[in-house]
Fold each of these.
Amino acid sequence: MKRDPEFERVLSYFDEDGDGKISPYELRNMLCKMGGELLLKEAEMVIEAMDSDGDGLLCLEDFAKLMEAGGEEEKLMDLREAFEIYDKEKCGFITPKSLKRMLKKLGESKSVDDCKLMISRFDLNGDGMLSFEEFRIMMQ
């Protein structure tokens, strides 16, 4: 893995004892200082899941993977929120009608047929609507 100075800087911030690794206690303590909540048992579970060498601590590579995984979760949550803006009927799909309505709110006038065409480009199963998974693929 390429050494990332940003991850090294953040790791050193978490690493209270200066051993180059993050213990469950250090993880919990730092997250609490930043206003979060994490029980020691939860911190132990996080580290156990990410610990590549089995020493019960996060090395730089483990820490980088943890930070990158958190970024992916956040992106997925943002996409879910965006999808729900279009899915006003809460049916789990973006329909041509809901797309037309949202585009109109955004100042773009399209016909239902235009919206059907737009959806068809990413409608993998051919049902005429976009599921969240199809929307996620479209947004990549």
Amino acid sequence: MKVFHVLPLILLLLLWGCEVQGRLVSIPTKPDRKDAAATARWLVSQNFWGVLSTISIDLDGAPFAKVVSYSDGVPNQGSGIPYFYLTTLDPTARNAFKDERASFTVSEYPLGTCGKVDPMNPTCSRITLTGKLKLVDEKSEEAEFGRNALFSKHSEMIDWPEDHNFKVYKLEIENIFLINWFGGPKPLTVEEYFNHKMNNRLRSLMD
């Protein structure tokens, strides 16, 4: 009898787990590790949060890192450019107005595709994009694109307090550090990153 009492709870937990991991169903297959540009764009497109680091104005120039939500486009149609929804009530945005230098790191681990390895295992891909954190002109088409990209992955943002004055920021990428296997970082230029062509199915969705 005790088994039957526990079964509904087990089923509920399994269903809850499927819902939480449901994001995995829509994640395209991980690219060939030999294709650095494809791996980099896949990582940035499929992820939805990472660690954004800026130069602190409150800590005498020390690095200040913070977990942030982001999006580079609507699902499976990423532009490669990380967009953020930030407020100057938070140190990150204030830091950027003083010194735009920033880096942004995302890991494959949250996607659930690393298996049982540690997040620091080189087979679990990770990427650090370094460049300048810039405020996007809120009246521009890019700002509209950024908002749509962010709200498509983070619908809660739509209802964030208006008096917090959240605005769209982007990372203007200048350098890329990618680890997706043993042997150190993969050589990858910014041009190669942005020139990577998505597969035909995704391209057709964007036409």
